[in-house]
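To the structural biology subgroup,

Please find below the input and predicted structure for RNA polymerase sigma factor, which we are adding to the shared reference set this quarter. The sequence is reproduced verbatim from the submission form. If anyone notices a discrepancy with their own records, reply to this email rather than editing the shared folder directly, so we keep one authoritative version.
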Amino acid sequence: MTPARDPHTSRFIRTAMAEDMLDADTEHALALAWRDERDERALHQLITAYTRLAVSVAGRFRRYGFPLDDLIQQGNLGLMRAAEKYDPENGARFSTYAAWWIRASMQEYVMRNWSVVRTATNAAQKKLFFHLRRTLAKLDDGEVRREDVSASVARALDVPEEQVQIMLGRMAGHDLSLNTPQSGADDGRDWMDAIADDTAPTEDRVLEDLEERRRRKLLYGAVQSLPAREQRIIVERHLSDSPRTLAEIGTDLGISKERVRQLEERALQRVTRHVRNSGRPEVLSA
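Predicted structure (tokenized):
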């Protein structure tokens, strides 16, 4: 039985869906007013008009079992982030740009809260996590044998079969406390007692973590240093859970597929150069 929706959430949804959509000229003017003048009334009007996007996307994410109001809140955070990052001069509609940030915010929330064990750690696993159920539903026609499921999913999503099997296991169960007894006996050991400590020494882990953080900081800094249009291309082509094609991005930006490819190539060169220059060790003068 579906739990009754909170009345405040219901009222919020009704209000959001009743707001009028903005035409392109109004949207552009509001975005300019916020970017150039930090006009909060313009920001409020822009956000209010497109809160319906957060509500709509949240409805599609409910299948992961999270409260609708939490998902909407995450969508609103993505919407605010989009308003802060949006460049009204790049030719794309704000609604298109905001939808990407809303989905990204909800995906991050779902993956962060799905399990104590981190569910997806790379692009292929994120793709699996968010498309696995849909793909399984398409395959559930009685023609695919149980032992062929992982292989069929791997082919459909173009990911390694081993990762499909791991993800199926992770999504099939629930978190179990490590303090839970292994058996019903009073003298039974906890599961914690059975875990072998095969981790690297603390010093090694700290050094590895510091190096990983340094590399990530360099990469993020390099991407942030790009012009807005090139930054968007790199994010949507290389850092997104569902990478977009050159043609799709070109349509949004109002430029040719070849021009997107040229901008992507230039942006990658800039990122590489930025990382190399920033990663050089400092030379101390005598």
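Summary notes: The mean pLDDT is 76. Residues 209-277 form a domain with the Arc Repressor Mutant, subunit A fold (CATH 1.10.10.10).

Regards,
Lab coordination
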